């Protein structure tokens, strides 16, 4: 399940933490939020999920089936 946690600090800083997004989908998911907030990104930390590629599941057909 994809999830976005948004924390807004008392100083106005915004922290986005994402989970469940594979590959570059995390950047697509936060693009609108970043535009609406108008904040410049000061730091971006990528998790191991960023480096996961989506696998296309293929049904393997056996001869004679």
What is this entry, summarized?
By secondary structure, this protein is of the alpha+beta class.
Secondary structure layout:
Layout: E1 3-8, E2 14-19, H1 25-37
Antiparallel strand pairs: 1-2
Pick out the low-confidence regions: none
| Fraction in helix | 10-25%
Please tell me the total number of domains. 1
Strand order of the largest sheet: 1-2
The end-to-end distance, rounded to whole angstroms, is 35 Å
Give the overall shape.
elongated
Element order: H for helix, E for strand: EEH
Determine the mean pLDDT: 81
Task: Profile the largest sheet.
Answer: 2 strands, antiparallel
Number of helices in the DSSP assignment: 1
Radius of gyration from the alpha-carbon trace, in angstroms: 18 Å
- Strand tally: 2
In terms of structural class, how would the helical and strand content be classed? alpha+beta
Strand share of the residues?
A: 15-25%
